[in-house]
Amino acid sequence: MAEIIGGVGTSHVPSIGVALDKGLAETPDWKPFFDGYIPGKKWMADKKPDVAVVIFNDHGNTFFLDRVPTFAIGVADSYKPVDEGWGPRAVPEFEGAVDLSWHIVDTMVENHFDPLVCREIEVDHGLQVPLELFFGRPEHWPVKVVPIWVNTIQYPIPTPQRCWEMGKVLRKAIESFPGDERVVIMGTGGLSHQLQGSRAGFINREADEAWLDGIANDYEKYRNMSRKDYVDQFGSEGAELIMWLVMRAAMNPHVEMKHRHYYAPASLTGAGMVVLENA
Ligand code: DHB
Ligand code: FE
């Protein structure tokens, strides 16, 4: 059966990709941010997963506001990086883990989650940037992907509790897949940020630090918070953090935090990552 070898939570801010495109990773603004990912990258290189299940949101790039699925899954052979308006990037296409994707879709439906199933779709920075952060800029990605989209853009977004339940079903799906794939689950988004309205520019370092500490083994409060609590504490876009709950729920109740990194501000956000292994 396929095996979950770990879970990571990470920011997916587009300007991280732009910093890489422009060769700014070693500049004083960006170096402390990228340096913090070195242990995470090394962990990934050592663990050598075959598949990354990436939980992220689209940002009006492939779904626009006229049609927004609450949950969607890709079952495509490959996914092109979508051009978000600043031209095509030097990011290779992502190969899909097609059979695992279909198995996850089927398991979800069996367990009363009914995602939009996407046979042809492109992926934005929500997926591109986390892979760049953990795998660098290879000619070919060393993992296949299963993209899972969660609506965190257009209200009503799903509840944190629903995201948690989906993580449980995701685990059931992966662990019942007849294969020997080593799977890493990547929950993306956050940390605190708000890009609009009177609180534009809002960052809550204290809440971010507590989140990074708590998501490993003190997660009950985050699991029980309301959507409004997420917006209050982390900002309207910081509510993307509910997608880390999908990853966390797919892990054991007790996990070991292998790596943790926080840096703020990265662009307009609190940023960072955790790397978790089942205890
Ligand atoms: C920005 C965009 C994001 O999707 C995100 O999660 C954080 C920041 C931005 O445009 O700065
Ligand atoms: Fe985002």
Automatic annotation (TrEMBL):
| 4Fe-4S is among the record's keywords | no
Name the Gene Ontology molecular function terms of this record. ferrous iron binding; protocatechuate 4,5-dioxygenase activity
* Extradiol ring-cleavage dioxygenase class III enzyme subunit B domain segment(s): 8-263
Top-rank lineage group of the source organism: Bacteria
The Enzyme Commission number assigned here is 1.13.11.8
Q: In its keyword annotation, does this UniProt entry include Oxidoreductase? A: yes
What EC class does the entry list?
Answer: oxidoreductase
Q: Which UniProt keywords apply?
A: Dioxygenase, Oxidoreductase
Question: Which SUPFAM superfamilies does UniProt cross-reference here?
Answer: LigB-like (SSF53213)
What Pfam families does its record include?
Answer: LigB
The name of this protein is Protocatechuate 4,5-dioxygenase beta chain
